[in-house]
Design brief:
It contains 2 helices and 6 strands, in the order βαββαβββ. The chain has 114 residues and is α+β, with helices and mostly antiparallel strands. The protein has a domain of 76 residues: Alpha-Beta Plaits (2-Layer Sandwich). Strands 2-3-1-6 form a 4-stranded antiparallel β-sheet, covered by helices on one side. A two-stranded antiparallel ribbon has the order 4-5. Strand 2 and strand 3 form a beta hairpin. The longest helix has 11 residues. The protein is elongated and about 85 Å long. The chain starts with a strand and ends in a 37-residue tail after the last strand.
Length: 114
């Protein structure tokens, strides 16, 4: 079984369109379009799983660069998903004590001028 990445799709492409596009090259096991989590709209790429490696290779050579809706398709073997690194949480919490304790900071608060 070989998983293929298909990129540069038009946003109107459906999973059925993808299945029909790859069917002439061999048996298509599964098709999945990646959609935006909030809007549900296609993000312009997806994945196709083909049962036979040689059929998948012929699909890559036959469809990569082929025009689809005025856009050249990008078709290649899917790479495994890599783990994203980075700070897991966004904003919100700051480390350290609470209150107006500015000790240790380069800039100290001024005394009130009254």
């Amino acid at each position: 079984m070989k998983k293929l990445y298909v990129g540069n799709l038009t946003f109107s492409t459906t999973e059925n369109d993808l299945r029909e596009m790859f069917a002439p090259y061999g048996a298509v096991e599964s098709v999945s379009l990646v959609t935006d989590r909030d809007t549900g709209r296609s993000r312009g790429f997806g994945f196709v799983e083909m049962t036979n490696d040689t059929e998948a290779a012929s699909a890559v050579s036959g469809l990569n660069g082929k025009d689809s809706g005025g856009r050249p398709l990008t078709v290649n073997e899917a790479r495994p998903k890599t783990e994203r690194s980075g700070g897991g949480s966004r904003g919100g919490s700051r480390s350290g004590g609470g209150g107006d304790d500015y000790r240790g900071h380069a800039r100290q608060p001024r005394e009130p001028r009254w």
